Amino acid sequence: MENSPKAEQLEEQKTFDIKASVNLYRNDIWRYGQVRNETKERVCNEELSLFCEGIDAASKTEFYLKKQDDELVIFDDGWKPYLSSLKKATKLYAKEAEIDPRRTFLLSRAIKDETFAEKLNNLVPNERLTYFSSYAFHEEEQFGKSFVESCGFKPDRKMGFIYQAICLDDETIKFESQTVDMSDQEGFDAVMNYVDLDPEADLNVLTAVYDHKLFEKYGRRFYAGQLENQKQHNIWNIIKNEKEIVEYYLEGLEEIANSITIGSELESAIIKHFAGVCGLFKEKIDKTLNLPSSVAGKIANKNSQYSTYGTLKERANSHYERFVSQNQMIIVCGGAIGGIDLFNSSLSDIAKAIFGNSESSQYSFNRLMYCLNCQAPPSQGSEKKPCGPCGLCRSCDIKFGGKG
User: Fold this and answer.
1) Poorest-confidence range of 36-40, 172-176, 188-192, 308-312?
2) Less Cβ around it within 10 Å: N or C end of the chain?
3) Local structure of 10: helix, strand or coil
């Protein structure tokens, strides 16, 4: 039987498809005899984002859009216009909305993303563009938690996003996203007001602005919408630094792509591989997040010592068996990932059951910004100060009972 992607293309397209990366690999193998480096890079970024989204912690991710013939392009079986890729996704959302009218809100969000993408093309070097995306509160109220979970949202966290695009000197666009829990509208409004005040504010500063609004409202300290004693690490960096596990995962996807497996068997193979690697990341993340940040950073960059406990494959298989026996499920943007007998799982625990709820003691004044207390608003000519997670300078932090 020929290893052709055509059989997979017969399936109805969906906005969320766990076979997407394997199909990209298969397309390259079918057309070029091997997987191109550009495809590997794209798949790496997209797949690692899925792991980040499955972890119950704040996450900041990034990717880049290149400028080609005065148009932004993204790699998708060759460099293709970014806006066209979004328009294609919008059409898929429109088809889904026809089948299930409840999903019309996803179409509306996709159209907003298109509008934002159109603005990206007009950015000049060193210019930034910021916007946000909130949780589906209205849809949850109308259709229930289970429905919004099936669309990729996280009811337990009410998670939203702050996005920022930065035009670099070569006109490449660096696109960053930061998860923020609670999706507080006043917090988002504060972010956009601060952007008007300081157009050069980066995403770390804007996250502090969001958290300061929560601090004002609730009298407690937050990091990306999570209480201060929850994880404050950039999960993206922790995962990306685990090169041994990342390489194992990507090689496994390529091995699956080279097989003749199709249909439900293909989906099951991908799920098994994904779930097993979730377990491998959990081992490392649990160790990293429970150590002081100075030590954790060193450990994250060291080679893993898995030989003591068996091979990566053996341990990954063991984690998958646990994944199945405990009936766990992982929620990611666009839908849910689960295995056979897992699709009816309770989604209340989502990734917590896999990744746990480790705590962190990280607390640093590493955001150069206008203090949201003593410089609100800043006087003309005033200089920015090093501020902590909630946008307070050291002296104000101490005044409010912090660790300044």
Assistant:
1) 308-312
2) N
3) coil
For residues 87 and 158, give the distance between their C-alpha atoms in angstroms, rounded to a whole number. Answer: 27
Q: Is residue 361 helix, strand or coil?
A: coil
The Cα 163–Cα 175 span in angstroms is 7
Average pLDDT of the segment spanning 143-157: 89
| pLDDT recorded at residue 353 | 41
- Radius of gyration for the chain, computed over Cα atoms and rounded to the nearest angstrom: 22
Q: Which residue has the higher pLDDT, 8 or 385?
A: 385
Q: Judge contact between 292 and 361, C-beta under 8 A.
A: yes
pLDDT exceeds 60 at position 331: no
* CB 403 within 8 Å of CB 381: no
Structure tokens at 136: 């589906």
Domain segments of the chain as ranges: 37-43+58-87+101-229
Is 43 a residue whose pLDDT tops 90? no
Residue with tokens 């409004």: 189
Amino acid at 43: V
Read off the tokens for 17. 């498809």
In contact, 278 and 228? CB cutoff 8 Å: no
- Pick the more confident residue, 295 or 114: 114
Give backbone dihedrals phi and psi of 132, rounded to 5 degrees, phi first: -140, 165
Q: Parallel, antiparallel, or unpaired for β 128-133 and 173-180?
A: unpaired
Distance CA 285, CA 360 (A): 11
Q: What is the pLDDT of residue 55?
A: 65
Answer whether the bond into residue 377 is a cis peptide, omega within 30°: yes
Name, in order, each residue with C-beta under 8 angstroms of 286's C-beta and a sequence gap of 6 or more: 355, 356, 358
Q: Which residue has the tokens 């199709």?
A: 262
The structure's pTM equals 0.66
| pLDDT of 229 over the 70 cut | no
